[in-house]
TrEMBL record:
Keywords noted in UniProt: DNA-binding, Sigma factor, Transcription, Transcription regulation
Segments forming domain RNA polymerase sigma factor 70 region 4 type: 118-168
SUPFAM superfamilies the record matches: Sigma2 domain of RNA polymerase sigma factors, Sigma3 and sigma4 domains of RNA polymerase sigma factors
Signal peptide: none
NCBIfam families in alphabetical order: sigma70-ECF
InterPro entries associated with the record: RNA_pol_sigma-70-like (IPR039425), RNA_pol_sigma-70_dom (IPR014284), RNA_pol_sigma70_r2 (IPR007627), RNA_pol_sigma70_r4_t2 (IPR013249), RNA_pol_sigma_r2 (IPR013325), RNA_pol_sigma_r3/r4-like (IPR013324), WH-like_DNA-bd_sf (IPR036388)
Any Gene Ontology biological process: DNA-templated transcription initiation
Family from the record: Belongs to the sigma-70 factor family. ECF subfamily.
Protein name: RNA polymerase sigma-70 factor, ECF subfamily
Any GO MF annotation of the entry: DNA binding
Residue span, RNA polymerase sigma-70 region domain: 28-90
Any one Pfam family match given in the protein's UniProt record, by short name: Sigma70_r2
UniProt cross-references to PANTHER family, sorted A to Z: RNA POLYMERASE ECF-TYPE SIGMA FACTO, RNA POLYMERASE SIGMA FACTOR HI_1459-RELATED
Species this chain originates from: Actinoplanes derwentensis
Amino acid sequence: MRDEQEELARKASAGDGAALETLLAVIRPGVLRRCARFLPCYQDAEEACQDVLLQVARNIGRFEGRSRFSTWLHVIIANGSRQTYRTLKRRAAERGYAEMPVDVADARTTSVIAGSRLDLLDALERLDATLAEPMVLRDVCQLDYKEIAAHLGIPEGTVKSRIHLARGRVREYLLAG
């Protein structure tokens, strides 16, 4: 299946529209599942999934095959999910809510796991992107250090150092918050 995705991605990046359509259909369930790892509300995960699929469709021509398609996709999923979370927070703030509206259940009080995800997203928002991205790729997307280094174009030791530093800062934010 992974090889099928890689081949479809290669064809789609070369301009094959049918391959892109098939690729989007094949990856959709996995994208939704991964978005749901970030976002506690299924509807929010669906919104992020749609955004990710749109980003894949728009940017597939930029996929050069230097890393595996799955690595490239993980980055888009992580960034898309985090962007969806930022958008949701901004919408709530624009409506005058410090948190989500009362008619929407607060994930922090209805589920320990969902609340933990929100707390983690809040902590990640406080990190510099150079620290947040490697940590998300390792701890949420479960990529290995070599894949992260190749994708980010930095040495593996730098990846490990940034992840270590990011985890420490996230730990501080979570303990303080």
